Amino acid sequence: MNTKFGERVAKENKKNDNRQRKMEGFKTTQQSTKQSKSSPLDNTHIPKQEPVEIKHKYTFSLKPSVRAKIEKIAKENNYKSSSDLLNTMFENMD
Question: Which residues lie within the region annotated Disordered (predicted)?
Fold first, then answer.
């Protein structure tokens, strides 16, 4: 009976030690995070994103053969749609 009690106490002590180490590590991480956030010289570069242009639906007519070619090119180049391909093509024109 005493050995079981002793084993149980040893397990609880080990759990408490592990918890204590985890908490100390957590506190250290929290302190370093706070320091890095408040430091203006941490060399963090946040790039600005381009403004988002809202897409609108338009209807226009194409010959079926032209539409098939557009869809084929889009599929071959891993575009999610033929509209996405056309958007990319026209955005890159100057």
Answer: 1-52
d(CA 65, CA 83): 16
Using CA atoms, how far apart are residues 16 and 75, in angstroms rounded to an integer? 58
Cα Dmax for the chain = 90
**74 and 85 Cβ atoms separated by less than 8 Å:** yes
Is 55 or 38 the better-scoring residue by pLDDT? Answer: 55
State pLDDT tens for residues 8-20. Answer: 777 777 777 777 7
In sequence order, which residues have a C-beta less than 8 Å from that of residue 42 and are 6 or more positions away? 36
Q: Can you give the residue ranges of every domain in the chain?
A: 1-36, 59-94
Give the whole-angstrom CA distance, residue 89 versus residue 79: 12
